[in-house]
Amino acid sequence: MIGTMMTDSGAGVLVTATSGDGPSCCGRVLIVDDEVNMQVVLSEAFEDEGHSVSAASNGAEAIAAIAAHDFDILILDLKLPDMTGIDVFRRAREIRPGILAIMITAYSSIDTAIT
How confident is the model at residue 107 (pLDDT cuts 50, 70, 90)? Predict the structure, then answer.
């Protein structure tokens, strides 16, 4: 199960939990966040569950990685230095139509949540 945990500051942090001895299968995850600490925390969480994890620090790196590799899911920060996570997801869907994404952000708003 994958869920979101809210921190005291209101920022969403992705957490994973499994039942039994671990996941029934392992996925390929791309974490896209310009904050290295967030990349490390999320990478460790997914790797501990047996998933293969790659990371990108901006939208351009993410799009290049998506074009080169077959990821199962993207974990996208909404605010990136060169474009938004939504822009990355739109481009990712052009490259790999079935790809899934989870958006994370420290800067939330109702307008963004319903986009």
Answer: confident
Cβ-based neighbours of 24, under 8 Å, separated by 6 or more: none
For residues 13 and 63, what is the distance between their CA atoms, to the nearest angstrom?
Answer: 23
Which helix (DSSP H) or strand (DSSP E) does residue 21 occupy? none
Mean pLDDT over 86-98 rounds to 98
Residue 86 burial (CB count, 10 A): 14
Is residue 104 within 8 A of residue 30, CB to CB? The reply is no
Architecture of the domain made up of 26-113 = 3-Layer(aba) Sandwich (3.40)
Maximal CA-CA distance, the chain: 41
